[in-house]
Automatic annotation (TrEMBL):
GO terms for molecular function: uroporphyrinogen decarboxylase activity. This is Uroporphyrinogen decarboxylase. Its main location: cytoplasm. Substrate binds at residues 27-31, 77, 154, 209, 327. Catalyzes the decarboxylation of four acetate groups of uroporphyrinogen-III to yield coproporphyrinogen-III. The lineage of its organism: Bacteria, Pseudomonadati, Pseudomonadota, Betaproteobacteria, Rhodocyclales. It comes from Aromatoleum toluolicum.
Amino acid sequence: MTRLQNDTFLRALLRQPTEYTPLWLMRQAGRYLPEYCETRKRAGSFLNLCKSPTMACEVTLQPLARYNLDAAILFSDILTVPDAMGLGLYFAEGEGPRFERPLRDEWEIRNLAIPDPHAELQYVMDAVAEIRRALNGSVPLIGFSGSPWTLACYMVEGGSSDDYRKVKAMAYSRPDLMHHILSVTADSVVAYLNAQIESGAQAVMVFDSWGGALSEAAYHEFSLPYLKRVVDGLIKERDGERVPNIVFTKGGGLWIESIADIGCDAVGLDWTMDIGRARKLVGDKVALQGNLDPNVLFAPPEAIAREAKRVLDSYGNHPGHVFNLGHGISQFTPPESVSVLVDTVHEHSRKIRAGA
C-alpha cells in the first residue's frame, strides 16, 4: 500500500503529537457543492449514486479538490445495512429515506439476519477500494456505519421520526424484541465496518445520530452497550497500522464519560458542549472530535474565524483533537465559508502548537 503523505488525522485520533489540528467535515461530500449536485443529476437518484462505486468515488474526492482537508470519508448512506437486510430502502421526494417493510411484527424481527457485506453490500466495498486507490496515499479514508440504535430507529419507524414513538414503545413494552433487533444489527455493523477496513478504510466512525433522543437509563440499556459491542468487534490493526475508531452520539454530551469508557479511540461531540470541559472530563482516555455549530458557516468570514478559534482555544495545546462540525454540514452552506474555516483551523492551531 502507498505510504500516507498526510497522516495527521490518524495521529490525532491516537492522541499523538501533531503539527496542527487536522480537520474534516461530516457530510463534506454533499449538496452544498455544485459539483456534487451535477454528479447527483447524472446518477438519476441518490441510491444510484450510492450504489455506483465510480460515482461514489467521484463525489468523495470533490471536497478534497476544493479544500485542504486532512481526511476523506466514504460517500454512502447509513441505511445501506437495513436495506441489505431486506427492508426495502427508498427515498421519497421531500420526505427523506423510507422503508417499504419496517419491522413491526414479531416474526419479522425474529427472522432478521446479518447480511453478508461481500454480497448485498459489495458495492460499498468496491467504492472503498476505488476511493483508496484514487487517494493514492494523499490523506486517510474514513469508513462508517450507523449505530445499532440509530439503525433500529429507522427500521422500526420506517423512516425519520420527530418523536420516535414506535421504536420507544417497542423498547419499553417489548424490550426482548428491541434487544434482538439491536443484537443482530450490532453484529451486522461489525461485519460491515470490518469489511470496509479490509477493503481499505484506515479509520471508521459510528454515527449514533438518534442516541440523544433517549433518556439516560434507556441510553445505557439500548444504545451504549451495543456501541461497545461494535467497538469490541472491530479490527484494530491492518497492514501493520492501527485502524482508529470514532463514536459519535448526537446529544450525547451528558454521557461523554460513559462513552469514553467503552474502548473507542475517539468521541465525537455535537456543538452543545464546551470541548475544553469535555477534554477535562475524559482526560487522556480518548481523542475528541468536533465541535463547531454548523450554522456558524452562515455567518460572515470574521465570525467563522472567531468561532473556530474559540473551539481550538478551548481545547488548548493538547494532543488528541480532530476539528469537525458538531453535526453534518448544511446543504445551504456557502462553499467559500468552508475555505475560511479550513484555513483558520490550520493556521490558528499551528500558532497554538508554537505557543504563540
